[in-house]
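Hi everyone,

Forwarding the result from last night's run.
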Amino acid sequence: MRKKDCFYLGKIVRKHSFKGDVVAKLDTDEPELYTNLESVFIALSNNLVPFFIEKSLLQKGNQLRIKFEDIESEDDADAIMGAELYLPLEFLPKLTGNKFYFHEIINFDIEDVNYGPIGVIVGVNDSSAQPLFEINANGKDVFIPMIDDFIKKVDRDNKKVIVETPEGLIDLYLNN
Protein backbone atom coordinates (compact mmCIF):
# COMPACT_ATOMS: atom_id res chain seq x y z
CA MET A 1 0.00 0.00 0.00
CA ARG A 2 1.30 3.47 -0.89
CA LYS A 3 0.68 6.65 1.09
CA LYS A 4 -0.85 8.32 -1.96
CA ASP A 5 -3.56 5.63 -1.92
CA CYS A 6 -4.31 6.28 1.75
CA PHE A 7 -5.43 9.02 4.08
CA TYR A 8 -3.89 10.06 7.37
CA LEU A 9 -6.04 8.84 10.26
CA GLY A 10 -3.98 9.88 13.26
CA LYS A 11 -0.91 9.25 15.34
CA ILE A 12 0.03 6.96 18.22
CA VAL A 13 0.60 9.39 21.09
CA ARG A 14 1.14 7.25 24.20
CA LYS A 15 1.16 3.83 25.78
CA HIS A 16 -1.84 2.80 27.83
CA SER A 17 -0.71 -0.28 29.72
CA PHE A 18 2.21 -2.58 30.27
CA LYS A 19 0.51 -5.10 27.94
CA GLY A 20 1.21 -3.09 24.80
CA ASP A 21 -2.01 -1.10 24.47
CA VAL A 22 -1.52 2.31 22.84
CA VAL A 23 -3.59 5.45 22.41
CA ALA A 24 -3.91 7.09 19.01
CA LYS A 25 -5.11 10.64 18.53
CA LEU A 26 -7.44 10.59 15.52
CA ASP A 27 -7.42 13.49 13.08
CA THR A 28 -11.12 13.48 12.27
CA ASP A 29 -14.33 15.27 13.13
CA GLU A 30 -16.12 11.92 13.40
CA PRO A 31 -13.91 9.57 15.46
CA GLU A 32 -16.83 7.22 16.12
CA LEU A 33 -16.62 6.09 12.47
CA TYR A 34 -13.28 4.40 13.23
CA THR A 35 -14.08 2.44 16.41
CA ASN A 36 -14.61 -0.97 14.76
CA LEU A 37 -11.61 -1.19 12.45
CA GLU A 38 -10.07 -4.58 11.75
CA SER A 39 -6.70 -3.14 10.77
CA VAL A 40 -4.74 0.01 9.96
CA PHE A 41 -1.52 0.77 8.17
CA ILE A 42 1.28 2.12 10.36
CA ALA A 43 4.06 4.18 8.82
CA LEU A 44 7.36 2.56 9.83
CA SER A 45 10.68 3.35 8.11
CA ASN A 46 9.00 4.90 5.04
CA ASN A 47 6.77 1.84 4.61
CA LEU A 48 3.11 1.31 5.41
CA VAL A 49 2.82 -1.88 7.44
CA PRO A 50 -0.57 -3.49 8.14
CA PHE A 51 -1.39 -4.01 11.82
CA PHE A 52 -4.43 -5.98 12.93
CA ILE A 53 -6.57 -4.72 15.78
CA GLU A 54 -7.76 -7.07 18.54
CA LYS A 55 -9.89 -4.42 20.22
CA SER A 56 -10.29 -0.67 20.39
CA LEU A 57 -12.17 1.80 22.55
CA LEU A 58 -12.93 5.45 21.88
CA GLN A 59 -12.10 7.72 24.80
CA LYS A 60 -11.81 11.48 25.41
CA GLY A 61 -13.39 12.53 22.14
CA ASN A 62 -10.86 11.70 19.45
CA GLN A 63 -8.52 9.34 21.29
CA LEU A 64 -8.72 5.67 20.38
CA ARG A 65 -7.23 3.08 22.73
CA ILE A 66 -5.97 0.20 20.60
CA LYS A 67 -4.80 -3.33 21.32
CA PHE A 68 -2.89 -4.58 18.26
CA GLU A 69 -2.19 -8.24 17.55
CA ASP A 70 1.47 -9.09 18.29
CA ILE A 71 2.04 -5.94 20.39
CA GLU A 72 2.27 -7.63 23.78
CA SER A 73 4.60 -5.47 25.88
CA GLU A 74 5.78 -1.94 26.59
CA ASP A 75 8.85 -2.60 24.44
CA ASP A 76 6.62 -3.66 21.52
CA ALA A 77 4.55 -0.50 22.02
CA ASP A 78 7.70 1.65 22.14
CA ALA A 79 8.55 0.43 18.62
CA ILE A 80 5.40 2.05 17.20
CA MET A 81 5.26 5.10 19.48
CA GLY A 82 4.72 8.30 17.50
CA ALA A 83 3.93 6.39 14.32
CA GLU A 84 1.25 7.66 11.95
CA LEU A 85 -1.86 5.63 11.14
CA TYR A 86 -3.31 5.38 7.63
CA LEU A 87 -6.33 3.82 5.96
CA PRO A 88 -7.07 3.23 2.26
CA LEU A 89 -8.93 6.12 0.60
CA GLU A 90 -12.01 3.94 0.05
CA PHE A 91 -12.55 3.95 3.84
CA LEU A 92 -13.30 7.68 3.77
CA PRO A 93 -17.00 8.37 4.26
CA LYS A 94 -18.56 9.81 1.10
CA LEU A 95 -19.20 13.53 1.35
CA THR A 96 -22.05 15.22 -0.43
CA GLY A 97 -23.12 18.75 -1.23
CA ASN A 98 -20.45 21.40 -0.75
CA LYS A 99 -18.37 19.33 1.65
CA PHE A 100 -15.25 17.75 0.16
CA TYR A 101 -11.88 16.23 0.95
CA PHE A 102 -8.88 18.26 -0.17
CA HIS A 103 -7.51 15.43 -2.34
CA GLU A 104 -10.91 15.02 -4.02
CA ILE A 105 -10.96 18.44 -5.73
CA ILE A 106 -7.44 18.39 -7.20
CA ASN A 107 -7.69 18.94 -10.98
CA PHE A 108 -11.24 20.29 -10.68
CA ASP A 109 -11.97 23.44 -12.69
CA ILE A 110 -12.81 26.46 -10.57
CA GLU A 111 -15.20 29.17 -11.67
CA ASP A 112 -16.35 32.38 -10.04
CA VAL A 113 -20.04 33.36 -10.27
CA ASN A 114 -19.14 36.90 -11.38
CA TYR A 115 -15.66 36.51 -12.91
CA GLY A 116 -16.24 33.27 -14.86
CA PRO A 117 -13.73 30.44 -15.34
CA ILE A 118 -10.53 30.99 -13.32
CA GLY A 119 -8.42 27.88 -13.85
CA VAL A 120 -7.65 24.46 -12.40
CA ILE A 121 -7.24 23.58 -8.72
CA VAL A 122 -3.73 22.15 -8.42
CA GLY A 123 -3.56 21.91 -4.64
CA VAL A 124 -4.74 23.06 -1.26
CA ASN A 125 -2.51 25.09 1.03
CA ASP A 126 -3.57 24.28 4.56
CA SER A 127 -0.43 25.55 6.30
CA SER A 128 -2.01 28.91 7.13
CA ALA A 129 -4.90 29.77 9.44
CA GLN A 130 -7.32 29.56 6.50
CA PRO A 131 -6.89 26.82 3.85
CA LEU A 132 -6.51 28.16 0.31
CA PHE A 133 -7.40 26.78 -3.09
CA GLU A 134 -4.17 26.78 -5.14
CA ILE A 135 -5.19 27.50 -8.72
CA ASN A 136 -3.28 27.47 -11.99
CA ALA A 137 -4.85 30.19 -14.15
CA ASN A 138 -3.05 29.83 -17.49
CA GLY A 139 0.35 29.75 -15.79
CA LYS A 140 -0.42 32.29 -13.07
CA ASP A 141 -0.96 31.29 -9.44
CA VAL A 142 -4.23 32.31 -7.82
CA PHE A 143 -5.08 31.67 -4.17
CA ILE A 144 -8.68 31.76 -2.96
CA PRO A 145 -9.57 31.26 0.71
CA MET A 146 -11.66 28.15 1.30
CA ILE A 147 -14.43 29.96 3.14
CA ASP A 148 -17.84 28.29 3.27
CA ASP A 149 -19.53 31.53 2.18
CA PHE A 150 -17.34 31.65 -0.95
CA ILE A 151 -18.05 28.05 -2.01
CA LYS A 152 -21.37 28.01 -3.84
CA LYS A 153 -21.30 24.52 -5.40
CA VAL A 154 -19.08 21.46 -5.65
CA ASP A 155 -20.09 19.75 -8.90
CA ARG A 156 -18.48 16.30 -8.72
CA ASP A 157 -20.11 15.12 -11.97
CA ASN A 158 -18.48 17.91 -13.99
CA LYS A 159 -15.36 18.18 -11.79
CA LYS A 160 -15.97 21.84 -11.04
CA VAL A 161 -16.06 24.09 -7.98
CA ILE A 162 -18.19 27.25 -8.21
CA VAL A 163 -17.18 30.11 -5.92
CA GLU A 164 -18.27 33.69 -5.33
CA THR A 165 -15.32 35.78 -4.23
CA PRO A 166 -15.19 39.42 -3.18
CA GLU A 167 -14.96 41.84 -6.09
CA GLY A 168 -11.37 42.38 -7.17
CA LEU A 169 -9.82 39.34 -5.46
CA ILE A 170 -9.16 37.40 -8.67
CA ASP A 171 -8.08 40.55 -10.50
CA LEU A 172 -5.32 41.02 -7.90
CA TYR A 173 -3.65 37.89 -9.25
CA LEU A 174 -4.47 38.08 -12.93
CA ASN A 175 -4.28 41.77 -13.79
CA ASN A 176 -0.76 42.71 -12.76
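Helices lie at 74-80, 169-174.

Cheers,
N.
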